[in-house]
Amino acid sequence: MVKKQTVMVALLGTLAIVSPSFAQEGEGKPFQLGVQQSVQGAPASYPAYPVPTMIPTPPRVAPIQKPPKKKLQPLNVGLQQNSQPSRPLNAGLQQQNIQPPPMRAAVQNAPPGVLPQQFMGNWLVLGSRTKVDARPEYQSGVGNIFTSSNSQSWNIVGAPGGYSMSSTTGVQSVQVGNCNTTTAFLRYAHPVGNTVAEEAIVMQISADGQSFQGMQRITIKKQGEPGPRAQVTYSLMGRRQ
Fold it and tell me: Which of 2, 12, 183, 202 has the fewest CB atoms within 10 Å, i.e. the most exposed one?
């Protein structure tokens, strides 16, 4: 017991000697650890221990996923998908069993010199003068003979090789040109005073055969003269009598 007290007294004396200097050094100075003092006072051959620094780590950006590329479609794909096979124009008529109106029979040519039957018979014909070509010395005379309008009755009869037409100018033997089922060409000649009137007639008959439209050209000639004295043209309209 006496020994323990002696040791404690010795320790207290030591602290009393050291404490004034320790207090002096510690006044006004921050508290320092012995480890820090030894590092700062280390010889030059041992460099100071580097203070660790924070190295910023760049944030990792998630890769942007691009949407998958769409396969380009041809421009007319919509048309191809929505289009339907074209239908013939008369498909509706076929489905409803409706037939289009029959076309008119094709024009058929008559044999040379043959006048089709539809042009035969009695006609009331109205003529309207459309043109007069005459030599100067015959201008006035032609205008008096061939009036601006006229009315005639025709009766066309006969058979191939022997056709005739009776009218206000008398009965004339008729020559038949190339004809078909819609158009006829007739020619005849008759005397007018000391001259000859050569007449050419074109008839275009209607579908029902009850009327026609046409043209008549009359050429006045005299034997021995180099050319015609006059040429007169009429437009014609005829109907069945």
Answer: 2
